[in-house]
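Take our chain:
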Amino acid sequence: MRYFLTRRVPPVTRILLIESGQRELGEKAIDCLRRTFGADIPIDVLGCRRTPLLGVESYVDVAQSRTFSQRLAILRRIRRGGYAVAGVLSSGESTMALWKWAAIVVVPAKFLVINENVDFFWIDRDHWTNAVALLQQRSGLGGESTVRAVAWLAALPFAALFLLCYATWVHVARVFRLLLGIRCTVRSN
């Protein structure tokens, strides 16, 4: 990922769109990118469907890559693609999550995040609050649920300690009963 520390957007010559989720969202994202950056900018798509989206220059289907070497070849190809801008569709689905992160790490481009409403923001230091808000929303830690999550995390060690003590008590009592020859029978009615 490039241009993280600067607001500067490089001259857009080619765009990579990492598609995941619903097909209609991908088509809307392509329309939005064409309106924003120009209709003549070539758009390549990295996706997991057999058929490409309409109006794209090239389409890479990651579902066809079965081996590690094939996946590395795809990453090398998109790294050498000459992309100035790369868009990541973030629709709340975990489809292609590893490919999204790998592309962010590998592709030397300025990234933008496109949500399910086809709104987008750049991934850079000026838009970090948008990224944090999106992560809170996707993880369920935004708003009132933050207090609930913190309380649950605070209670977790105590609950684990209680369960560990109870399991120890049950096993120690069983060992003593076996050593003393005490048999417990369960009566059923």
User: Anything to note?
Assistant: Helices lie at 23-37, 68-79, 97-106, 128-139, 145-180. The chain has a mean pLDDT of 81. The first strand starts at residue 15 and ends at 18.
